[in-house]
Amino acid sequence: MIEISFTKLLLLAVVALIVLGPEKLPEVARTAGAVLRRLRQSWEGVRAEVERELEVEELRRAARQAAAEIDAAQARLDAATRAAQQAAAEVREATAAAQAATASASPTTPRDEAPAIGAGGHDAADEAGHGDRA
């Protein structure tokens, strides 16, 4: 950046006074101030636009990263869902096999062959007096 000290600024003012004269110097100073003001405003506008573009790019990058994380989470969720469905199918198959094994292994006893229990909680042999009482 250009460094302008006070002495250089004073020298520039004296040269401008000599070249332009005392009548035109205030008008030229106002014009130069207006031009500098417009340059600063333009520079600030460009700087603000660049900053906005950088912020927009930062937001886009964050959105892409969030979308990638969402896709990864969705893939993990899909894998977990498939694993849970497969485990549920295996449990259903095991349950069906266990029920089939239980049904084929249990003997079929008719109800008529079961000992009859009397009202007092004794079977029919005890009530007839044939029980093992001591």
From TrEMBL:
Family named by the database record: Belongs to the TatB family.
Keyword flag Repressor: no
Pfam families: TatA_B_E
Localization per record: Cell membrane; Membrane
Extent of Basic and acidic residues compositional bias: 123-134
Keywords: Cell membrane, Membrane, Protein transport, Translocation, Transmembrane, Transmembrane helix, Transport
Membrane protein topology class: Single-pass membrane protein
InterPro entries per the UniProt record, alphabetical: TatA/B/E (IPR003369), TatB (IPR018448)
GO cellular component, one term: TAT protein transport complex
Major place of residence: membrane
Biased composition annotated in UniProt, kind: Low complexity: 92-103
Gene this protein is translated from: tatB
GO biological-process terms attached to the record: protein transport by the Tat complex
Protein name: Sec-independent protein translocase protein TatB
Source domain of life: Bacteria
Cited function: Part of the twin-arginine translocation (Tat) system that transports large folded proteins containing a characteristic twin-arginine motif in their signal peptide across membranes. Together with TatC, TatB is part of a receptor directly interacting with Tat signal peptides. TatB may form an oligomeric binding site that transiently accommodates folded Tat precursor proteins before their translocation.
Subunit comment: The Tat system comprises two distinct complexes: a TatABC complex, containing multiple copies of TatA, TatB and TatC subunits, and a separate TatA complex, containing only TatA subunits. Substrates initially bind to the TatABC complex, which probably triggers association of the separate TatA complex to form the active translocon.
GO molecular function, one term: protein transmembrane transporter activity
Region Disordered: start-end pairs: 92-134
